[in-house]
Write a structure and sequence with these properties.
The complex is a heterodimer of chains A (266) and B (754).
Chain A: E1 3-8, H1 17-25, E2 36-45, E3 48-56, H2 65-69, E4 75-80, E5 87-92, E6 95-97, E7 104-106, H3 116-120, E8 127-129, E9 140-142, H4 148-152, H5 158-162, E10 168-172, H6 179-186, E11 202-205, H7 208-215, H8 226-236, H9 243-265
Helix pairs in contact in A: 8-9
Chain B: H1 7-13, H2 23-26, E1 49-55, E2 64-70, E3 73-79, H3 92-95, H4 97-101, E4 111-113, E5 122-124, H5 127-145, E6 150-154, H6 160-169, E7 173-175, H7 177-194, E8 209-213, H8 223-234, E9 238-242, E10 255-257, H9 264-277, H10 283-289, E11 290-291, H11 293-300, H12 305-312, H13 316-328, E12 333-335, H14 347-360, H15 397-400, H16 413-422, E13 430-434, H17 438-441, H18 445-453, E14 457-462, E15 474-477, E16 488-492, E17 501-506, H19 520-530, H20 542-551, H21 557-562, E18 567-570, E19 591-592, H22 596-600, E20 620-625, H23 639-644, E21 650-653, H24 654-660, E22 667-672, E23 682-687, E24 694-698, E25 740-745, E26 748-750
Parallel strand pairs in B: 6-7, 6-13, 8-9, 8-12, 9-10, 11-19, 13-14, 14-15, 20-24, 21-23
Antiparallel strand pairs in B: 1-2, 2-3, 4-5, 4-15, 16-17, 17-18, 20-25, 22-23, 22-25, 25-26
Helix pairs in contact in B: 5-19, 7-14, 9-12, 9-13, 9-14, 12-13, 16-18
Classes of the chains: A alpha+beta (266), B alpha/beta (754).
């Protein structure tokens, strides 16, 4: 199962209700946001004058850049599939991609508040709240959770529920009969570009000109710090690692050295 | 500011501190919304109880809602799942009601201005003292000048009971901005033509084509109305948007008519002429139900394609395209009646043209057209009728001066304002302002301030410290819509094409009011007792008020509580049944393309176009509209909404901007044709989506009262630049898109090229 979100721009009118409902649901302090609404255009596109909206949120990516860079101590966690009851053990830092529902989540208790994950995300989907700093952290990272706690009790994500245009559709991308799958078949795409292809599961559907305008919002580069942080985070993990990572340690040290040299040169 | 509010800042914002309120009274408590963000927020569905019966009033569409309460704290608002109107949805403003309830800047106690009007110094007083002063001052005015010495300016559900009390007192001077700065002409001109007022009951989901003149649905958000529009678009209706700006509606349109501001009436006449010329109008409908076809045909004959295209600055073939599109889809065409009509001071005629176009398309009472939606009616609460020494009808200003024969209910506010200043034809000396911010609504702010300065007494009731509250002698804190009983909403399922159902939803409180905020029924009843009218009080409490409104349909608060706040029953389709004949309750019994009544009053009996003044060299027309996250200035202090759109960007054409050396995001002030400058600034938005002869910004920004700490001086107050007035003869309503502006950047004037 891979949860996904579809935003239908043919329906969306840019009312901002989704952004506010999320904020209300999860008590997000006003200076931060788990999701956002950017007003785009009117601007000329190859297909005509367009004005549309970028209702943005975490993409719960297939290959999340954020998960790779978390430097928190890892822990063996048992994940459970709510549907089948199956379990899986995984070694995870303070953020991970759920093996059963494909969403990316954060363990607030173990989060160090270092901000590596927020820096690593090309979409800017995460933030760190320094007000939640405690003895063991500089704050806490936070982001959209695809409202898993709501979904667990049979509710829709808050943004989906409030949308007056029914422009947000949520469901299982791995189920070919689901509404979200049908949208993917119709051509709904995530915000990707040549250098940013980490498999976003929040996808957009719309007419040619609106999609052309929307795609101007796709990040064009992976954040700079990413590869360096990735290596650093990998090296700081305790010895009990999956085989591939240990195998790379030697090469990683060389890489890291070069990367740090490059940084100093500016 | 309130966004980074902590206890210290909260205490600092209270000018209450100056007046020596004991600090214990203003200490931040859990109810006042200053709480640290939880490490793991539980979600609104955890450990909360759901309270039903809410009816929103963040705008006036009145969606039905529920509140999620944790302990004694309201944590979320959601659409009432039982609602057949908005369902589980709420817009950005509906969701943000929480930040109104817990806004630290909100009015908390009755206050007396011990400073000056416009430069207040507030002293907290008791309700008893406040209402004693109000009673004494109002009575003094009545004793000296008669009840005509009082004027009440009011708006919103909370003002209806107070309004009824002032009717009882015999006060002839009253008005609602909803009519006189908004949709007065939309109501009156439709009434004059069709014999009824459609409001916005236009069946977009089931239309084959839509014509929106100026309507920027999507930036204006009336929830179920937007649902109607979106469904219509999705169902394949061909949308035509006529707007100088590429609005949210234009973004979904098939045809965008980039019309020259002020020429919409000519466009409508041109459409009609083309349809007559090519014989493609709905002849059967017109023959049966319309009066004045021949005269209308002759009257619009001058509006050839060429002439219309030139006047409107649009391609001739676009006019043809639109006319043919509408005609070929007749009668299933949504010719949107519009809502806010107070544009140029010649707007009655435009709405008449709109109504005539609708009629010649036969687009009434059918799927897609204007529909007469069948809603349940609600009871009324009146004070008893009493004899007055002076019949208030004899002192209604418009009638006295024999002006504005087609004015909407109430008195044109500018007539009252002039009278407040001049004392002619009689003195108005006491003002009651209830739930309306006259500084932001009435053009010519200086005049409003001058008029208020001339009063013996000014009494203001509001929820927030809006601009107008600075002019109160006595300022009363109102319970918000989430904290009181008042309005009863009556409606149907949101798509007229779906199974017909009707609903009734009374507004019931979600939470108790905090501090000393009171509901208007209590306030007015106490005032009435102090003025010696206790025996005539029609309802003792707000609950009794609502029960009385519900009684007509055999309902009650108790019954509605058992129904989760919404009563639903089978309804009736608005579409004409086979063989059913429509009725048009005009004087003639037909749709009056030609209006005898208007001819009798020396107004054009056929919809007529008059040119509006052009911008002077170097200036562009200032046009305003709505933001989806604001409701005029009411929401300007809402922290969540301010975050979504903290300022009102000024839309300026990209070619003009280039010539002027302006970039996206540049900070600017505005100066109008009379040299008036905006007190605060906004950012430029450079776009090809607007004509060069106008600039656009959302109305309601640029709060004037520093007590609204979130909204104060954020963005530009467009109304502060409305110094020129053009009051139309038919209704007494002033147009507000007749002022022109140029840019001030870094202290330098930058002219806007032609």
């Amino acid at each position: 199962m891979q949860y996904g979100m579809i935003i239908d721009l043919n329906r969306c009118v840019g009312c901002h209700a989704c952004a506010v409902a999320c904020r209300a649901e999860w008590e997000i302090p006003v200076q931060f946001a788990r999701n956002w609404l950017r007003r785009l255009g009117p601007a000329k596109t190859a297909h005509g004058l367009a004005a549309t909206y970028y209702p943005g949120l975490c993409n719960h990516c297939a290959h999340p850049a954020c998960v790779e860079v978390c430097p928190a101590d890892t822990k063996m966690v048992t994940f459970k599939d709510v549907k089948t009851g199956r379990t899986k053990n995984m070694e995870v830092a303070a953020t991970w991609k759920d093996p059963f529902n494909g969403t990316v989540q954060i363990d607030k208790k173990r989060c160090l508040g270092c901000g590596a994950c927020a820096d690593a995300c090309p979409y800017g989907a995460r933030y760190v709240n320094p007000d939640l700093a405690d003895d063991d952290s500089d704050g806490k990272a936070d982001k959209c959770t695809y409202c898993m706690p709501r979904v667990a009790v049979g509710l829709q994500p808050a943004c989906v529920q409030t949308c007056l245009a029914e422009a947000r559709i949520f469901g299982d991308l791995d189920d070919p009969e689901s509404e979200v799958s049908k949208y993917v078949k119709k051509g709904a795409v995530g915000l990707t570009s040549k250098n940013v292809q980490i498999g976003p599961n929040s996808r957009y559907f719309g007419n040619k000109k609106d999609m052309a305008l929307l795609m101007t919002q796709a990040p064009q580069e992976m954040p700079e710090a990413n590869s360096r942080r990735s290596m650093l985070a990998g090296l700081l993990r305790p010895a009990r690692q999956q085989a591939e990572t240990i195998g790379l340690a030697g090469a990683a040290a060389t890489f890291l050295g070069k990367a740090l040299d490059d940084e100093e040169k500016g | 500011m309130a966004m980074n509010l902590n206890r210290r800042t909260f205490l600092k914002t209270a000018s209450l501190a100056v007046a020596g309120i004991p600090l214990a009274k203003v200490v931040a408590r859990a109810e006042t919304g200053i709480a640290k963000a939880p490490l793991i927020p539980p979600g609104s569905f955890k450990d909360t109880k759901t309270v039903t019966g809410g009816v929103c009033e963040m705008c006036f569409w009145r969606c039905q809602l529920v509140g999620k309460i944790r302990g004694d704290r309201l944590v979320k608002l959601e659409g009432n799942p039982k609602s057949i109107d908005n369902g589980r949805n709420l817009c950005a403003r509906g969701n943000s009601g929480i930040k109104l309830v817990y806004d630290p800047d909100r009015l908390k106690y009755p206050m007396k201005n011990i400073g000056k009007r416009g430069a207040p110094k507030w002293q907290k007083i008791s309700w008893d003292e406040a209402l004693n002063i109000c009673a004494e001052k109002l009575q003094a005015t009545i004793d000296k000048y008669g009840p005509k010495g009082i004027a009440i300016w009011y708006h919103g559900a909370s003002s209806h009971y107070p309004n009824a009390y002032f009717d009882y007192l015999g006060v002839p001077n009253k008005y609602e901005p909803a009519f006189y700065q908004c949709r007065g002409q939309t109501a009156m001109a439709m009434m004059q033509t069709l014999g009824f007022v459609p409001n916005e009951d236009v069946d977009m989901p089931n239309s084959k084509a839509m014509l929106l003149v100026g309507c920027h649905i999507g930036e204006n958000i009336h929830l179920s109305h937007v649902k109607n529009f979106v469904r219509g678009v999705e169902n394949g209706s061909k949308v035509v948007v006529v707007d100088p700006r590429f609005s949210a509606a234009a973004a979904k349109a098939h045809i965008w008519v980039k019309i020259k501001p002020g020429t919409d009436t000519a466009f409508l006449l041109g459409l009609m002429n083309y349809m007559f010329d090519k014989d493609i109008y709905n002849k059967t409908f017109v023959k049966k139900y319309c009066l004045g076809l021949k005269r209308l045909k002759k009257h619009v004959a001058e509006w050839t394609v060429a002439k219309t295209a030139k006047e409107c600055d649009i391609p001739g073939k676009q006019l043809v395209e639109v006319a043919e599109l509408l005609a070929e889809n007749s009668p299933h065409v949504s010719v949107h009646p519009g809502r806010h009509a107070a544009w140029y001071g010649n707007d009655f005629q435009r709405v008449r043209a709109n109504a005539c176009l609708t009629a010649i398309l036969g687009a009434i009472d059918c799927p897609g057209g204007i529909v007469r939606i069948k809603r349940m009616s609600i009871g009324h609460v009146h004070w008893p009728e009493v004899e007055h020494d002076e019949d208030p009808e004899d002192f209604a200003l418009a009638e006295m001066e024999e002006k504005h024969p087609f004015h909407p209910p109430g008195t044109p506010p500018e007539m009252m304002r002039d009278t407040m200043i001049s004392g002619k034809p009689y003195p108005i000396k006491s003002m009651v302002i209830w739930g309306t911010n006259s500084i932001k609504t009435m053009p010519d702010q200086e005049k409003t301030m001058k008029a208020l300065a001339n009063m013996d007494f000014v009494m203001v009731s509001d929820v927030s410290p809006t601009d107008i509250t600075m002019w109160a002698d006595i300022l009363l804190p109102e319970a918000s819509y989430l904290e009181r009983y008042d309005h009863v909403e009556s409606g149907t399922q949101w798509d007229q094409g779906d199974t017909p159902r009707q609903f009734i939803a009374p507004r019931m409180p979600i939470i108790k009011p905090m501090f000393e905020r009171k509901d208007p029924v209590w306030v007015i009843n106490e005032l009435a007792k102090k003025m010696g009218h206790g025996k005539d009080i029609p309802v003792k409490t707000q609950e009794e008020f609502v029960d009385r409104l519900l009684k007509k349909d055999n309902l009650s608060i108790a019954k509605l509580r058992k129904l989760d706040g919404i009563y639903i029953q089978p309804g009736e389709s608005p579409y004409l049944k086979k063989g059913e004949e429509p009725e048009f309750p005009t004087d003639s019994g037909k749709i009056e393309l030609y209006s005898e009544a208007m001819a009798d009053e020396d107004f054009p009996p056929l919809p007529t176009y008059t040119r509006t003044e052009e911008p002077p060299r170097g200036f562009a027309r200032m046009i305003y509209g709505r933001s989806p996250v604001q409701t005029f200035n009411r929401t300007a202090n809402n922290a969540w909404l301010a975050r979504e759109m903290p300022e009102n960007p000024l839309w300026i054409n990209d070619e003009s901007a280039k010539k002027m050396g302006l970039k996206d995001g540049d900070r600017v002030f505005l100066e109008n044709q009379d040299g008036k400058r905006s007190a605060s600034s906004t950012v430029i938005k450079v776009t090809p989506g607007i004509r060069q002869d106008c600039v656009f910004l959302a109305h309601g920004y640029g709060t004037f009262n520093p007590a609204m700490t979130v909204g104060y001086h954020k963005g530009i107050d467009d109304n502060s630049l409305n110094t020129k007035i053009n009051r139309e003869g038919e209704t007494g309503i002033s147009g507000m898109r007749i002022n022109f502006v140029r840019i001030i950047k870094d202290g330098k004037v930058i002219n806007i090229p032609a």
